[in-house]
Fold:
Amino acid sequence: MSGGNWNYINDSAASEILGYHIYVGYGLNSDRHEKNYRMVVRENPLGDPEISALVYDVFCLIHSYDWAESGDTDFDVYQKDVAIFKNRWFKRARVDRIKEMIDISTDKLKEELYTAFGFQPESSSEL
Structure:
């Protein structure tokens, strides 16, 4: 793989802006993307979980476009990512996205409280 037309600039900017090394090339439909999405919401690097998640997904979409445009992946992979992105951010009700982000954030609080009181989290696989 060549690194796309922009030679990893998008990936580097995502890491710098989101405040830690985060990979944006998993594809928006992958389990790894979902794990990173949850991490971004929990860590909230931009001071607003909704904005942090949106920026993460935009970087992932840019990565998908960049690699499709350069020929590193098929253009249909990018089109699938576009459809997932639009469904999440344009078609899904905002209240549903916010409820999801609240649940993700309270999972983090729950994990921290279990740890503070010396208990194992109920389900660390979801956190």
The CA atoms of residues 25 and 60 lie 6 Å apart. The mean pLDDT is 89. Residues 94-116 form the longest helix (23 residues).
